[in-house]
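As promised in the previous annual report, we have extended the structural survey to additional targets. Below is the entry for SRPBCC family protein.
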Amino acid sequence: MPSSTFERDIQVGSPADRCWAVLTDVERVAGWVTIADEVREHEYLAKYTVVLADQFGPFSVYADIDVDVTDVEEHRFIRFTGKGKDRKGGSSIRVEATMALEEQPSGTTIAVSGKYSVLGTIATMGSSTVRQKADGILDEFFTAASEELAAA
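The corresponding structure token record, generated without further manual editing, is:
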């Protein structure tokens, strides 16, 4: 079962309240990540769904993910879980993550940490391949966040 933890942070020039407004706009943020598709907000800061669609080696992945916010302190941090299954191959995906914002004199530090696990067909690709895919998703997120939130 490929699973791993992740932790990254960046410093941006925007104040924490602007960062929060942008980073909790799920449709906007989903547009930063190429595998995110069909994003729906069911209840703001509480419940979302997203379809993850991608080619993963020889496998096509189309996974329905339910995202539940488990803890939130507005403008400071949000903690959530995402879990779901691939429609075609039965692989399951689970993510637990926290995003924290810390106001700095020159902007905001955005820190994201968590863990994920993958079971089923996708897992047969091996943990290093799954980790590379996860790292690529984080790269997309942080690159877009850096660009969008660079200046106040």
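The beta strands are 3-12, 36-43, 47-56, 59-73, 77-86, 92-104, 107-119. Residues 3-148 form a domain with the Alpha-D-Glucose-1,6-Bisphosphate; Chain A, domain 4 fold (CATH 3.30.530.20). These points will be discussed at the next consortium meeting with the crystallography subgroup.
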